[in-house]
Design goal:
Number of helices of chain B: 6
Number of helices of chain A: 14
Shape of chain B: globular
Structural class of chain B: alpha/beta
Largest interface: A-B, 32 and 36 residues
Structural class of chain A: alpha/beta
Shape of chain A: globular
Oligomer: heterodimer
Order of helices and strands of chain A: EHHHHEEEHEHEHEHHHEHEHHEH
Radius of gyration of chain A: 19 Å
Largest sheet of chain A: 9 strands, mixed
Order of helices and strands of chain B: EEHHEHEEHEEHEH
Strand order of the largest sheet of chain A: 2-3-7-6-5-4-8-9-10
Helix content of chain A: 40-55%
Distance between the termini of chain A: 32 Å
Helix content of chain B: 25-40%
Strand order of the largest sheet of chain B: 1-2-8-7-3-4
Strand content of chain B: 15-25%
Number of strands of chain B: 8
Radius of gyration of chain B: 16 Å
Chain lengths: 291, 210
């Protein structure tokens, strides 16, 4: 067959590229933007760096022990093309569950790990209404707002997509192990984190996957809602990504009333929308996709 | 550029009757027992499989649309001169419930890419109960119902086309009969969708293992 890819081959190639010295999401994204080819084609001998073969073998040894997930490759059926609108698009990602969920109307609900009781209440109210209107809730499986958003959506019989900042077979935080398994089984769980690179890099650089995961969540969603966040919160990565990707950014009204933070006004000046209710949000988004 | 199909490899849950050496391709994942209601894959497969007693009804249009889409995607992915053949359904042609959706898809694909060669080397002898109605998934039983008609010319390579890959039993039976008559032929399978089970314990592989 002429137009076909082997996901396994692409996964090995992509993981090998990620394993090379000084490689980062940015350098990889730039390379793919320039070359417009599959990961396996980027590993062609004339393009490959030294010692790639030995690295590829190490990568393959690790990957052989990994099972229970699927691989989505840029260009193949069901890879969401809108991911390419991210500043540093991912060419490949791992998933468990129903990839068809990416064809539904997706909206991100994110916020701080350390959240207030009011933040939790607001999240529940908002998510319940969004689920009722048919939206799929996207969030990051972090403690705090993310967890409340996903749990509420599941309880309300809605659909969710969990995007994690660790490899797809890891659980972080461990408290969400049950929720993550449930999402993988009945909804959709996504990870862009390369197994091999993750297994050999120091803890400090592993943290970079969390903000990168936020950029992906934004790219997958029609809009992002921030319920609660401090001025230094990682959630703000997603706020920046949403604006950069041309997505709608919604900030809950209560954030503006918090005298301790300045970010809501800064983002509002750059185009974020101040909202009070789910209706304020859905009025500005397109119709929910239905058949 | 048309979207790429996926080759079945070790990174995926391999259906019960598909062997490591088999060359099998698919476009989308079809979620068994539901899946998201607006998932394109599930919608397309449901429309394609609309029962023939809906002919003439308003919703028949969706079946024709699905056939056309399948045909276009096939034509876009295949090389000029590729030999294609439909995996026969469990019903024989004289059965009133016989569904010609695959033959229709292949003819339509040939309209989109006239260099394609459509063959029909295998037909079904007697109507067997469809798998979804409790029929057999066992390749040897399916095989015993197949009748070899042969190719209209010498064939070195053939792509067997079907809508959904579940256990691979029909593919296995068809590949067997082709190789008995054309031992040197290369036989690959192309499916519009591959069934995935959200819960691995309910998968066809698990079912067969039990």
């Amino acid at each position: 067959m002429a137009n076909a890819v082997s996901p396994y081959r692409e996964m090995v190639a992509y993981e090998t590229l990620w394993g090379q010295q000084n490689q980062s999401l940015r350098t990889l994204a730039e390379m793919f933007k320039r070359e417009r080819v599959l990961p396996s084609e980027l590993l062609r001998p004339e393009l490959a760096r030294e010692a790639t073969e030995e690295l590829r073998e190490r990568v393959e040894t690790l990957l052989r022990s990994k099972t229970g997930f699927s691989v989505a490759v840029h260009g193949a059926f069901q890879y969401p093309e809108r991911l390419q609108q991210a500043k540093h698009p991912i060419e490949l990602f791992y998933y468990r569950g129903d990839i068809g969920l990416l064809e539904s109307s997706c909206i991100s609900v994110v916020g701080s790990r350390k959240c207030s009781e009011a933040g939790k209440t607001n999240t529940k109210k908002l998510v319940t209404e969004l689920v009722r209107q048919g939206f799929t809730i996207v969030s990051g499986l972090a403690l705090g707002i993310d967890t409340v958003a996903l749990k509420t959506a599941v309880e309300e019989k809605g659909k969710v997509i969990g995007v994690i900042g660790t490899p797809i077979d890891h659980y972080y935080p461990v408290e969400n192990r049950g929720l993550q398994d449930l999402i993988a089984k009945e909804h959709l769980l996504i990870s862009q984190v390369p197994f091999y690179r993750y297994s050999v890099e120091p803890f400090k650089s592993k943290r970079n996957y969390f903000p990168q995961r936020n950029e992906t969540m934004s790219a997958l969603s029609e809009g992002t809602i921030i319920v609660e966040a401090s001025d230094t919160s990682g959630t703000l990565t997603q706020a920046r990504a949403a604006l950069q990707q041309g997505r709608k950014l919604f900030i809950l009204d209560s954030c503006f009333e918090n005298p301790d933070i300045t970010w809501p006004h800064k983002f509002a000046e750059r185009g974020a929308i101040r909202v009070k209710t789910a209706d304020d949000i859905t009025a500005l988004l397109g119709e929910v996709k239905e058949t | 550029m048309p979207a790429l199909w996926k080759r079945l490899d070790v990174s995926q849950d391999v259906p019960a009757f598909i062997l490591q050496e088999d060359e099998v391709y698919y476009a989308r994942e079809y979620i068994s027992k539901g899946g998201y209601k607006t998932s394109e894959a599930n919608q397309l497969i449901m429309n394609l499989k609309k029962p023939v007693n809906r002919r003439g009804q308003r919703d028949w249009y969706y079946k024709e649309q699905a056939i056309d889409r399948f045909a276009r995607e096939l034509a876009a992915a295949l090389k000029d001169g590729t030999v294609i053949a439909a995996i026969p359904s469990s019903k024989c042609r004289t059965d009133p419930e016989y569904d010609s959706r695959l033959e229709d898809t292949l003819s339509a694909a040939k309209r989109y890419k006239p260099s394609l060669i459509v063959e029909q080397p295998i037909v079904v002898n007697a109507t067997s109960v469809a798998v979804h109605a409790g029929g057999s998934r066992r390749p040897d039983e399916i095989y015993s119902n197949l009748v070899w008609k042969g190719f209209s010319h010498e064939v070195h390579q053939v792509l067997l086309i079907d809508d959904v890959l579940t256990t691979g039993s029909h593919f296995r039976a068809c590949k067997r009969i082709i190789l008995e008559h054309c031992p040197a032929a290369k036989v690959a399978g192309v499916f519009w969708a591959k069934t995935v089970w959200p819960d691995p314990e309910t998968s066809a592989s698990a079912e067969v293992r039990r």
